[in-house]
Amino acid sequence: MRDLSQHLELLSLNTATVRKQAPLDRIIEAAVARGIRLIDPWRDQVQAIGLDKIARQLRDAGVRLSGYCRGGFYTALDAQGRAAALDDNRRAIDEAKALGSPCLVLVVGSLPGALSGKPQSINIALARSQVRDGIAASLDYARSVGMPLAIEPLHPMQAADRACVNTLEQALDLCGELDPGRTGVLGVALDAYHVWWDPKLATQIERAGAERLLAYHICDWLLPTRDLLNDRGMPGDGVIELRKLRGLVEATGFQGAVEIEIFSDAWWSRPMDEVLQVCISRFKSVA
Amino acid sequence: MRDLSQHLELLSLNTATVRKQAPLDRIIEAAVARGIRLIDPWRDQVQAIGLDKIARQLRDAGVRLSGYCRGGFYTALDAQGRAAALDDNRRAIDEAKALGSPCLVLVVGSLPGALSGKPQSINIALARSQVRDGIAASLDYARSVGMPLAIEPLHPMQAADRACVNTLEQALDLCGELDPGRTGVLGVALDAYHVWWDPKLATQIERAGAERLLAYHICDWLLPTRDLLNDRGMPGDGVIELRKLRGLVEATGFQGAVEIEIFSDAWWSRPMDEVLQVCISRFKSVA
């Protein structure tokens, strides 16, 4: 296993971690000041500043991306809605390309309307089939421009509203179906928070192999967890065996970054510099 | 599929659904007054009145059990703690027997101390191995007195604190290992709330078959869900395809009760009689 305490260059900051504290340009400045050279920004954060401006800032600062968040949300009640989703995913792929990202992370979506609390359908099998078709369509374009897509299985507690792909096995089944040749254009974003509980995790990580593991995200599962979305913990504050999990990931030959992504009302309420400092310290000691 | 609107005798009331409104003896009276003839009581509710008293009340009223909640919580840091858990499970089996229950439901436990927010270990593989050993030990006694054990896979969001068995597949793997002959002494309690999201649900229900399906519980998944434990919905108020799910369950030949079990601060704050009335109405119209 790699000794992270000596390799800060392997830390990536998912910029949602400090999204409430500052706009993206200032987050990048603060990350650089702390020695962080990898980030994974969100589309809305990029758009708020402007794609060209962020691309230039990244180049000038020597900061690269470990991923780009996010494409997906493929499901819709009507064909028009699904076509609009495909268009939007094409734009996300173009942005990822412009920023030099190694992949576009996909949060695939689920029951149409569920995110706003008003599901228009409760047919999850239908959602899953629309997601399959959506990824297949995006994949043609992704392949043509050389931008790998990373399906992120989300925790089952987000199965209704955010993603109907909920286990690594399910994500890998999709990869196997849509990219049987393991060409590198389709894989998974493995987030410890979403998958740590899975009794089949070790065997499925081995099945994925390094070619399918396009991103590795961490945070921690708190006890108690008070919110289904925004109560994630700083690595080391919860019950996920992060070191063991990274061992499984690296045993495949994975050489990528370890990305810290924390959605947390508690951490969003603390000064950005303090949060970055704790991220670096936990990256070195517990990740 | 059975037409539930004509078969109120197939409705079972899990008495946790109205646990905040009244003690068990009054819950039984209220259920009988509404025509409900099946219940699944919790051990603490029985103990608060007394086992003999409840057994007599049930006999006199012609009320039977569809299950008894609950055994389990097998994990502990030391051998003494695990032995105490086995003793407690033996007592639970005896109580289930005294009440004439068709099975004892097992919430198997997970990281020791996690339920009180102070995990003493985060080794979930170890917890899973202790759970396996614990069920194996309970099974010997359960077999000797003829009381089937129903492993309840719990939603992955409760993997740290309540149960490290989190999918139907995992529960059935345990059943296969510990009772390969499918003797009827080991099976699962399938709760829609815990398993509805699972992409392998249909194939695993078929794999279970009627011999392994010892109980079928329902409620609903609300959008948004505001609490990981006590924000379950009344059937029909959420996104679980209950009719489709029951179709899968009954396709195995399952002839058992449909048990309503709702942990909900919202429903606990309403009058017991209103809750029972709504349960009956939803049982007939959406279950």
Structural summary, described in words:
The structure is a homodimer of 287-residue chains. By secondary structure, the first copy, chain A, is α/β, with parallel strands linked by helices. Chain A has one domain (4-285): Alpha-Beta Barrel (TIM Barrel). Chain A is built from eleven helices and nine strands. Chain A has helices at residues 24-33, 43-49, 51-61, 79-98, 124-145, 168-178, 192-195, 201-212, 242-251, 265-268, 272-285, and strands spanning 11-14, 38-40, 64-65, 68-72, 104-107, 149-151, 186-191, 213-218, 258-260. Chain A has a nine-stranded parallel beta sheet. Chain A is globular. The mean pLDDT of chain A is 98. The A-B interface holds A 111, 114, 117-119, 122-124, 128, 155-157, 159-161, 164-167, 170, 196-199, 221, 223-226, 228, 239-241 and B 111, 114, 117-119, 122-124, 128, 155-157, 159-161, 164-167, 170, 196-199, 221, 223-225, 228, 239-241.
Features:
homodimer; 287 residues; alpha/beta; TIM Barrel; nine-stranded parallel β-sheet; 11 helices; 9 strands
What is this entry, summarized?
The structure is a homodimer of 287-residue chains. Chain A has 287 residues and is an alpha/beta fold.
